[in-house]
Each structure stands twice: as structure tokens, then as C-alpha cells.
Amino acid sequence: MESLPNEIILIIFSHLKTYDIVYAFYFLKRRYARLIEEYRPFSTSIDLTHASLPIFNLYRSLLFRSNYMNTCEIQKLKLECHMLNKILLNEQMFSRLESLSIIVRRADELMILLKYFSFFKKMKKLFIRSDVCCCDRISFEENVKQNLFNANIQSLTFATPPCYSISLQDIDFKQCLFTNLTLTVRSINDVCSILSNAQHLHSLRIRVLDTTINPQNPLTIADPPPNLAHFLFICLHSISYEIVKNIFRTLTPLKKLNFSLVFDIQSGIIDGYRLSEDIFCHLPNLTSIQFEIKSLISLMSNELIRSFDTPFWSRFTPIGFHSYNHIYTLPFPFHHLDLDQSILKRQQTRKSERNWRYVRDIDLYDRQSYTNEFFTFLRDEFTRLTTLTLKWKLDFVHTSPLLSTWFCLPTIRRLTIKSTHLQNPENIKQFLLCLPNCETLDCDYVLIARATSYFRRGHVLTGFGKRLRLLLVDELPSDWKIERKKRKNMYFRRFRAFFPNIECPLYN
Fold this sequence. Notes:
By secondary structure, this protein is of the alpha/beta class. The chain has 19 helices and 18 strands. Helix 2 packs across helix 5 (53-64) and helix 15 crosses helix 16 (445-451).
């Protein structure tokens, strides 16, 4: 490093996180300190997400307790929500701040977030991401509507669970300056309200919680945004094809359309002919279509597959099929995928090593025993998978050799087990041994107790228990519900010894 010219060192810096650069080099030699100070992201763009406590404390000292950095120069800031209590945001200190990203890790951090909404409205770009549900949805919604829809914000993103959904039918979007908007709304009426009034929009990413229509607010889009180029539309419940058709056909400026929808029974069979003739031929500027379509009726047939083998569809991405009612573009464009073993039988999906590169979250809902072939497919194809949910019984076709001896999903950080009363604890034990980096487990108490032989010391899952950081359990023993008895409970003591590192107030 000493022999390298400054230009090369600055190139090396460009491939590292800024806080790692500061932590590793700043106090090493004065030469590196001067280079870091000349390195523009050091003073204008700060990303402290995933930063360890020593690194965070160092940056805080540089920001507030020395002359090394001028907070007035900072333009972009990314923080964990819990850091807000130690880095006090205000307009005087961060006068040039334009872009702010906040990551919420715990439900109890919401109250910290609410304190700063009046400051957030000064931003041009605001990004809030949460992996946990909020504890006070009403306060959150009120703060968002009062502060962020009457502000100077141009780009607003809430990458949050559905519990953060917002009703926007009483908002006057004509006063808003949004060019980019990403959030979860309460109903279809909210979508139409945005599209009818937010005239500055270039990109709209919307997830709809409830597809029920408010009859007092008709679904009309009289004046859609003239510059809307990208529209992402996701519904969490079934929806009528006619509603979707009427919304899409009004958005003639669109260049890129992404959607994930479940159509109701009344919608009938949705095939390639119908989509192209009813919707896409009315959108002349489209250059990209990415979607997944599910139906409450069985879709799969050779005729349905042929309906996507037309000159129109050849202009866009390949189409994949599985589960008799699931159609999607490839590469699969969304983070979440419902998966069963029928995908192995329908490899008209035009095999590609990168078909599933965006998938981070899978729900397994097969009612048949899982084969070694499927586990191999899951391991080899979904290389970026971080979250897995078992929605039905986990059973294996072959028990020899043991699954844990050849199968591994090292990227999984969270496992959720539903229908736990159907689960074989021995199979669950084998599967947990295949998840060496799992940090969060969501299941009921009885299942995890049986899988660990009731937290027996020296059990094969002891190593798994030490790695776990968060455990969400249902159906605790009844005597745990009595607070004064909890700490003296025999089950509790064994439980806490087996999972020594879990971060949950219930078990502290």
C-alpha cells in the first residue's frame, strides 16, 4: 500500500464502504487521512447501515466531536433507526442533506422514527425500509399524511410490510411534487386517486392491501400522469381482470410495466391472446413487460402455453409456467415466489442459470413429499435466497443418505414454519441442520421443543441454538403467561440455556 500512488488508492477506496475506509486507514498515517478527506463520498455521502458499534462510534466522533467533517456538507445519509437517538438530525447541522435512508430492524423503533417526521419533510429523497410490523399503525399513517404529502419530497419510498398500508383518498396530490413514489396503499381506490392527481410522477410502485372497491369513490382515472414511464402494481388479494384492464389501458405513456396479480374466478382464463389484445396493444410505448399471474382456477394447458408463443410476445422476455395456475416472465422479476415441485415438470421455463436471481423469499407449499431432485433444484437455482417459509408438511421421499449430509442452504437467514401441528420434529431437525447461518426462527413452542428433545443439553441442534438471534414462538406453555412465575419456570431455564443469544424481551 505504501508504494501505491494516490490515484490507485482512491480507486481502491471506490470499491469499499466508506466507513470501512475510515476505520481501517484514517488514523494509520496522515497521508491516508488526507486522501480520505479528499475522497468525496467521505464528506458528502455516509452509509452506516450494518456498521458495527465501534465503526458507528468513530463516525459519530468525526461528525460531532472534531473538525474532521462538516455536517453541512453531507448530502446523502443512510442510518439504522436506532442510530437516530445518537445522531440528532436537525436542519441547522444537516442543511444540505437531500437524501435520507432509514432502516428499521425492530418494532419498538417505530417511536424513534415518529419523532423525526417533521424533519423528513425537508428531504428531496426519503427511503424507509422495515422488515418488522409496526406497533402503532395509526400514528405512523397520520404522521406520513401530515408531514410527507405536503412537503418538498420528490422521491418517497416505504419498503415495508403490509401493516404500513396507508389510505390516501383524502390527500390532495396536486400539491405534491412526487416524481417517484413507492408504498403500500389500503385499496384500489387509493391507486386511482394517485394516478388521477399526481401529475409529476415518472415512476410509481404500488402494493395494494385490499382489493375491495369503495362504491362512494368510483374507479376512474380522468387525467393520468403524462410522464409516467414505470408502473409496478402488486395486489395481495385476488382482483378482477376488468379492474386491472381499465387501469392499465389509461396509462398510455408507460414504457415499463411490472405487475404481480391473482385474478378471481370471475375473471376466467387469462392467456397471452387476451393480455395482448385487451391491454398491451393500447400501450404503444411499452418496451418492457415483467409479471406474474396467478388464478383461482386451473389454467395450465397446451393452448395456454401456445397463446404466449406469438410475434407480440417474442418482443419481450420468455414465459414460465408451473403449478397449473402460475404464469410469469423470466427471469422471474420479484423477490417473493410461491413454489412447489410442479416446477420440475414444466421446464418450458427455458432453462437459464439466472432465471431466479432476484428471488430472496420463498413459500414452500407442496403437499407431496419432497424429492432429492427438488432439494437439489432449490439449492442450485436460488443462490440468493434469504427467507424460507414452510406452509405445509415437510416430508422427504428419501431418508438415506441423511439430508443434512449433502444439502445446505447457507444464505438462509430466516425460517418460518406454518401448519406446525402437521410437522414431523425429526424432519424439522434434519432441515435445521441444513441452515448453518439461520438467525431467525418463527414456529410454535411445541415443535421446537420436540425437535430439540425439549432443549436437551448436548443435542445435535445445540450449535443451531447458539447461532439464533431471534425466536418467534406461539403457543407457549400456559405457566409462562404468568409474569412472576416466568423466571422460575423449569422450561424457561432450559430454553434460555439452549438459545443463549436470542434478542427478544420475552426471554430476557
